[in-house]
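Progress against Task 2.4 (sequence-to-structure conversion) is shown through the following example record, which the project officer requested during the mid-term review.
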Amino acid sequence: MKNIFYKVFLLVMSFFVCVGIFQLGYGVFAEPGSQDDPVIVKSYLDQIVIPQIKNYVDESIKALSNKIAHSGQGNNEPITTERFTVVSVKPGQKLIGGQGTEMILRRGKATVVTTEMGGIADVTSGVDLKNGAVPAEHLLIIPRDDGRGVAADRDNSEDVLIMVKGTYAITD
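Structure tokens generated for the chain above:
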């Protein structure tokens, strides 16, 4: 009986040893980072992934910088920001927001630009601004994409600073 047990035990153990040797050889000779080796190694990250990510980020920053550099210079192409961004608006220019755009006047004087559909929601005071001055440090939300926004007063001695999150365009 002991002889059969040892034979079965040796047969099972030799099976696992053969499978282990096969897997070890398969892993050693597989190209790192290939389909045959799904484990990500540092060299694969350093040589392939990180340069691709760096290139993508550099190109995105360059494209965004070009958009920002050309805004307010007669270019009415809309800009979209996912975070609050400080935008400088020259006296006499308008910052027109898209639907859901949030704005906060930080410096200078500005007036509300309305349309026939209504004004801008002043979330801080809980009112709808239909005309007049934009209050400083109040959160404003553009309800529709129909040309609403704020206009920098012409009598400002310096640019008006507005924090913006969302889609906007600067017009003359």
